[in-house]
Amino acid sequence: MLLLEVDGKALLARAGIAVPAGVLDEGGLAPDLPGAGPWIAKAQVPVGGRGKAGGVLPVASAGDLSPVRAALLGKRIKGFETPEILIEQACAGEEHYLALMLDAAAGGARLIYSPFGGIDIESRQAGADGYNAVTPLEAPALARAAHEMAATAPASHRAAILAAGLALAELFLARQLLLAEINPLFALPDGSVLAGDAK
Questions:
Q1: Cα angle vertex 79, ends 73, 83, to 5°?
Q2: pLDDT digits (tens, 9 = 90+) for 24-44
């Protein structure tokens, strides 16, 4: 089962991985916007590629919310109708990629990190510029892999990326996930990271 982004981010937040301030718009009265703008509104459907399909729109000011809601609520994306949207504070930073997935053919879990994330990650070989390795599906092995992975990250964000990798590994095992992907993982100027999306 593919969780909606809002559900995936709730899991990430509980695991200690920072996520943007957000609110779920279920189509009734317009919600109060979280914090200061600008914001980004994202259709909550169980498919990838929402941005390229028009399911992710900017909300520059509170006055822009109404037309964005009208455009997204009910919109069909890859066969799914959008019943709700996630509205979050927009964030800016370097876009990285972090994922942990079950690799049954290799007999373990595959940890992938790249300093180049975002919507075009599929056009790159994931991990080609960072880390891509299979490790046994055990907590000590995943922790060792997270330390190896973090060593390939920029020094300015190495500690935060290690913390995110360790938290993702713990979540992956605790919830028996097949995939835990953060794309983009925003690397912020202060050295911290923020999960821009969750799958």
A1: 25
A2: 999 999 999 999 889 999 999
How much is the pTM?
A: 0.93
Q: Which of 79, 84, 66 is nearest to 30 (CA)?
A: 66
25 Cβ partners below 8 Å, 6+ apart? 31, 41, 69, 73, 84, 85, 86, 87
Tokens 């490790």 belong to 135
Contact 186, 91 (CB under 8 A): yes
Q: Which residues partner with 22 through β-bridges? A: 88
pLDDT of residue 103 exceeding 70, the answer is yes
Question: What whole-number distance in Å separates Cα of residue 32 and Cα of residue 73?
Answer: 17
Q: At what angle do helices 139-150 and 158-174 cross, to 10 degrees?
A: 160
Compute the distance between CA of residue 181 and CA of residue 63 in angstroms, rounded to an integer. 33
Task: Tell me the β-bridge partners of 86.
Answer: 24, 42
